[in-house]
Fold:
Amino acid sequence: MRKKKTVKKSFSSKKQLSKKTGLIKKAEALRKKTTKKVKTSKIAAKTLIRKNKNGDLKPKKTVKTKKQFALSKSTKEKKHSKLIKPKSFSKKKTNKVTLFEELIIEAKTDSTVHEQSRIEESKFDLGIPENAKAMPEHELPSSYNKDQAVILTVSPHFVFAYWEVTNNSMHEAVSKIGYNTKLTLRFYDITLSSNPDHSPHWDIEVFDRLGNWYLKLDYPEQKLTLDIGLKNEFGNFYPLTRSNTIKLPRTTLADPGPLKWMIVTDLGDKITTDIEDYTDADLELLRKILGPHFFDLLIKGKFSTIEGSNLEAVFQEISSFRLRQDSSSSPTMWSNH
Amino acid sequence: MAQGYLAFVLHAHLPYVRHPEYEDFLEERWFFEGMTETYIPLLNTFESLVHDGVDFRLTMSLTPPLLSMMTDPLLQERYAKHLNKLIELSDKELFRTKDNHIFHQTAQMYNHNLKYYKWIFEEKYQRNIVNGFRKFMEMEKLEIITCGATHGFLPLLKPSQEAVRSQIQIACECHEKHLGKRPKGIWLPECGYYAGLSDILSNYGIRFFFVDTHGLLLADTPPKYGVYAPLYTASGVAAFGRDQESSKQVWSAEEGYPGDPAYRDFYRDIGFDLDFEYIKPYIHCDGIRVMTGLKYHAITGKTENKKPYDIHLAQHVADMHASNFMFNRQKQVEHLRGIMGKPPIIVAPYDAELFGHWWFEGVTWLNYTIRKISCDQNTVQLITPLEYLSKHPKNQVAEPSESSWGHKGYAEVWCNQTNDWIYRHLHEASFKMTELAHTYPHADHNLTRALNQMARELLLAQASDWAFIMNNGTMTAYAVKRTKDHLYKFNKFYSEIKNYNLDMNFLAETEWKDNIFPDINYRCYA
Structure:
């Protein structure tokens, strides 16, 4: 039972919300003390989820406490979907500090700083750490008294889900499937079928009627939806509400498909013209355009944005690549300055 | 004849910060600094280019909050006062630095610039600098595009399609009001795109938008020409992709131009360096030291021992960097033209505030770069996306991938443990707004006022800036309070409307405080 409690999270009450704010402030204070460059990590305790032969995702290990996670962090992360509990909900300060120290180590090993963000931040930089005016701070409703689940795409590998179910709905469900039930999130992988009832699914037990989760997934382009409901000891699931549907972005170059062309006139009229097959020559052209390094990243699914990667070497590679291409026509050397 | 094109895109945006209830409000300085260091210097540069007969093309977004602040009489009045104070300080600085030649020439530069900017603001454009941008738009030198109404990050507002649609519709209306015509292009807030968004853009007459590099490369069909030609979505809207190489050269603080040791240091400011009694009248009225914008030191290197800033050396370096940028674009275009067999378009988008505010010499660099590209070579031609589409109307059809230009390329910056709590409330408010818009399609005068104000509060709460600031970890209290403040007002109005009990005093006070989009119509949420 103690282990389950460590997974419990979220904004189920004003108290928890203010607790979260307090913890964030403490974390900020710690960060300022150590380094300005450390960014908040998203990872804390995890539930590992495994994909079985039928394609269903099932929990491999229900819960890992923060301490366990901190101890096992040095081992290579397993390639499974993961349910992530935000670190700011740590109950023990000591655990939180341990996690934060991990972040600092991570940040130090990642030598690059997100430069674009830093420049964008300068718009709001007046040279002081906090604003002076004591604007009144209002509290927001702790709940909206409705059954609701929403799922948002954070990245090709992360989704964020939040939900709320009312006590009345839970009582109604209990009256249908019995008292021995657990509040459950049922994720449907609807990539192949738009009907969730005919799709693989996996369940995650939760403890609050109002809460949120981050879910780590290993399959970009997956289409997902979510039910929140009650599940009894016999495995019967009584859904209370269904979320929106999302499709995770792809991370690799799309499969070659027909190249369609269109003319759009200045007045906005659309004229579909020719359709060509995508050939190896097209792929080779793209390789030449991007350069071998970026093309390689693209094929491997490691290409996202220019930020957060050390590109000095890459641009040198582009330069030398271009020089090789141009060497027959132009012997001129060129450099950065 | 040019072998390829270069499209500079400047994204000018600040969140709507206007506090009539306070005499002196710190965060209003974001706007004042933007005016002094970026927007007016850019206008001045455009003026000089036109004056010298330089044929240039530039694309620039002026977001609805920025347009609204630039045209707001209260903020204009406060900026005029702020500028006068700065000029007074720079006058004093002439005296203080008179015995140190190198500091003195910097003080002279500030003094001269500030007085000239005052003339541009007060005399030339009668305090409304939007008219300046509009002038260059009408000369067809500048393609001004819009953005989300309050810069809401659309992929995370998507659960309410009405919220996304209203961000676009209200932005287009605001753009037309201030610039006299509907926008043809949009800078999606944070470059945030998701599959299907272009259908909404198409409905409002938008012809083009931008995505980050991976948004285009990871489209649902491989793009034949990478990011060097646009893609059309099925609805016929063109998506242009960011070029990595030109972006990196300018964006990067360490590897790129702005980090050069000769350039002015952003952080070292006399607001913190000088004697308190001397600087007191020019910092916050509560005696809180803030940046004044007057800085006398160069970046120098990774040391606290900064060298004095040498304006002539910095301008020389800016000139060298402009030459280098042009040279690299020439090489890039020659290379791409050779392998593509058609003219490539290199899209180079930047935050406008990078120029002048963060990178003090950035405006000078832009000025030199435009002049060199226009006058010193024939390989690369400056172009706007619309002009490109007119010359090259045939393009590949594919749907760009969901993406943003934030750290890691998706929604990580705006949805993490520091800020994810806002989405439950933002979505709920959007759903309620739609509910009321359906319930009251023909509201009477007072109810219409309340519903319109609810729409304003919702839009102001949706600004991606608040989540961005929460993520940064500095000045977060203001961002949290602004989000809660707008949602609190929204919920109060909702409750009053449901109970048929409108507090008209509260409504009037809120209209006075949050006066963005005076012509808003809540029915857009229906």
Remarks:
- Residues 451 and 522 of chain B are 6 Å apart (CA to CA).
- The radius of gyration of chain B is 23 Å.
